[in-house]
């Protein structure tokens, strides 16, 4: 089996027409790779197009205010990616004279650029013979070559990187790496792949031994923490509300949200109202729950149980903002959905 040759031929016939493949300039390649971490292409595409329209060059991205970057990123999640993206744009624009580092080792020094992203940019933009290894690559190699190493184990990345490197044609690094990612995304998918239509079905160890759903092996499961949020949607006598920027470490750093009362367990209405009153620095007229059932919002390792509460006051809040202004702020997607539903009705 000439795996590399067959894979590249498949790619050239089946590759998707994606906007970041129009040329090999590193800016769109970098932008797409950062966006598509933990994000499907179909979900990430409109974000990429909006970013390219708003920031056609890395200089435009560097010059943009952080709030605009976060607002355009809103809904993609993992907001540290957006902050790192912005910081790296500034480094490239202001320190490196608008030029990306020209090789894998230099790219690795950029903030938010790990081994996978550096390998993708280096191979696609510069033709450097360095393999990419992500979830798609783990799956393709594990199935075709019958690798039963737990991909969450300490030595897995080194093993799979070495295997990918041994298969990589030096002068076709860009096509090979993109082919590996595309094959995993379109053909060798996680669940119910169409193995009968696969070009490797006569050689694939997983298919010939009936282990397609068992490979790749991933034994370690991340513990999920439950958190209980009560958001206070405040309305003063002018109809203004309160929103604050989230500082410090933790989820949604740099985004805005409503005043928050978090409890270690789910509390009943009477308990929650008492807690809300104890946190307010103004006299409330009414406190009532807006949501009948908690809104469930799942993150990579957290499950949020969210209730929204309307809190009214006859006072004028000195730091209140009107609803139109609040709608322009970058907020977590779960708040954006709430605001669109309740404020635009």
TrEMBL record:
List the Pfam families hit by this protein, alphabetically.
Answer: HHH, HhH-GPD, NUDIX_4
- Answer whether the UniProt record assigns the keyword Hydrolase to this protein: yes
Residue ranges occupied by any HhH-GPD domain in the UniProt entry = 35-186
* CDD domains attached to this UniProt entry: ENDO3c, NUDIX_DNA_Glycosylase_C-MutY
- What is the catalytic activity of this protein? Hydrolyzes free adenine bases from 7,8-dihydro-8-oxoguanine:adenine mismatched double-stranded DNA, leaving an apurinic site
Point out the gene that encodes the protein: mutY
Name it. Adenine DNA glycosylase
InterPro entries in UniProt: A/G_AdeGlyc_MutY, DNA_glycosylase, HhH-GPD_domain, HhH_base_excis_C, HhH_motif, MIG/MutY, MutY_C, NUDIX_hydrolase-like_dom_sf
Cite the EC number.
3.2.2.31
Quote the NCBIfam families the UniProt record gives: mutY
Q: Print the keywords alphabetically.
A: 4Fe-4S, DNA damage, DNA repair, Glycosidase, Hydrolase, Iron, Iron-sulfur, Metal-binding
Keyword Iron assigned: yes
